[in-house]
């Protein structure tokens, strides 16, 4: 029996907001295969982002267990989780979250710093990834000097810097127009098909969901 | 790895350069105060000690006034009465007593009038004593003869006060002409090097002071220790007090030995320096609070950035290192700036205060420079500790949501 790449077992997430307890996730069971393209769909407040954070090892469940490569990650220390994120996971955000004082190239080299990659090698690799995104001309530009689509491509390049197995994206097309959204999605398709990476995207947009092999719908913290 | 953190920290500081520089300025001001005040006080200490060292080991100084307050007694114009001087002469172990008077006075040379210190002493008795026990030497010319209208001038007089003055020239004090017979070799401090020495008789004529002395130099006999004779002198002086009525009006006296004065100057200056350091440290600490404030602001502003960096693989320790290095750099640059400014201002004060009556060289020791830098760096690190910890402990999910 082969284990799936990611496995969630009865995952609960609760938040204490003063005296009120918010239950965000209510016993999620989920398996994601290696090399799959999954879209998690749900309206805002459905718990889809929290689910993505847990899958991306950015957050841990209140109850339940998460396995990544057969290893339980739900009880790991923050440093261990950081290490896993650094090696295995590439994050992409709705608002790109590029570091505004750094150039496109420097943004892409940044994750490699925490992997101890030498500066020259970092720049070389970042340059290559940016070139594959068609951004060779833009490597010295600051994020503010780039369009939304270009910024998101830099962010995708950054997510790829450490060559992660898994790409997780939270509404990656939420801040760009529909034409640019299409271009961005084609990049994800390419990463999935050509590079065999595991793609997990959270969205509320049906159009985006159409690119996926598998759609998981979530409502009020439960998979439906 | 740490080199990388350092680079990131530098970049972050540059991004907020105005705020960084203002925070650095806060540290600069504190460290500058420490460096300037300590180097000035060290200079004062050396100036005083230089004077003390001229005194021979077999020499005592008797002054009116309480002990421990040498400056007040010297500046305050208390006088030893003639009967006090007679009492000192009677003390066992006393070989020689030289009463000495001084005053700031106008002197004219070739039509130009300047304020100088004139010193009066009984030349006949004092000459040999000054040469043998107080380190006075003639650099040019000759010692004056006792009872003549002749003066010696300090080393700096022909250089700074009356440039071009030669031995044999005339100088006019209160309308009386004196011949300059000799220029003294430097005595190591500006006050003495700027003095004009008169025979007591003429000093009294010129100033109208008819009796007493500002202090008395005493040479002790062989086979007596300074402490022994010092005690004897005090005893005699107490006797003169007892012979009078209205004791409370008679000033007390103090006998200084060279050792005693050296120790006392050392003690006073040490206390003074501790006090100065304590006060100046407050401003360094204020600078440190400025760093903490800046760093907290920075953590707030960069919350989302911190969340992002964590998401892409930074450990808590990476985050805290970056913030810690940032505040350390602020401290260190502030320290360098403070030391440079401090030395500059100390030198300026030195030039500005230069005058025959009060002058000294500031002492900028390597220890002081290292102290300044280290202190600034330490404050920077301490100030950055809490903000760095807060940044490191931010929950990445919350941080990413922060706007």
Write a structural description.
The complex is a heterodimer of chains A (224) and B (403). With 224 residues, chain A is of the alpha/beta class. Chain A has seven helices and ten strands. In chain A, helix 3 crosses helix 4. In chain B, 59% of the residues lie in helices and 17% in strands. Chain B has a six-stranded mixed β-barrel with strand order 2-3-8-5-7-6. In chain B, strand 6 and strand 7 (176-184) form a beta hairpin. Chain B starts with a helix and ends with a helix. The mean pLDDT of chain B is 87. Classes of the chains: A alpha/beta (224), B alpha+beta (403). Chains A and B meet through helix 2 and helix 3 of A and helix 1, helix 11, helix 12 and helix 14 of B.
List the helices and strands and how they pair.
The complex is a heterodimer of chains A (224) and B (403).
Chain A: E1 6-17, E2 20-32, E3 37-41, H1 48-55, E4 63-68, E5 71-72, H2 78-88, E6 89-92, H3 104-113, H4 119-132, H5 148-160, E7 166-170, H6 178-193, E8 198-203, H7 206-209, E9 214-219, E10 222-223
Parallel strand pairs in A: 3-8, 3-9, 6-7, 7-8
Antiparallel strand pairs in A: 1-2, 1-4, 4-5, 9-10
Chain B: H1 2-15, H2 17-53, E1 59-64, H3 70-76, H4 82-90, E2 94-109, E3 112-121, H5 123-133, E4 138-141, E5 150-153, H6 157-161, E6 170-173, E7 176-184, H7 190-193, E8 195-199, H8 200-207, E9 215-220, H9 226-243, E10 253-257, H10 258-301, H11 303-311, H12 316-353, H13 366-393, H14 396-401
Parallel strand pairs in B: 3-8, 5-7
Antiparallel strand pairs in B: 1-9, 1-10, 2-3, 2-6, 2-9, 4-7, 5-8, 6-7
Helix pairs in contact in B: 1-12, 2-10, 2-12, 2-13, 4-9, 10-11, 10-12, 10-13, 12-13
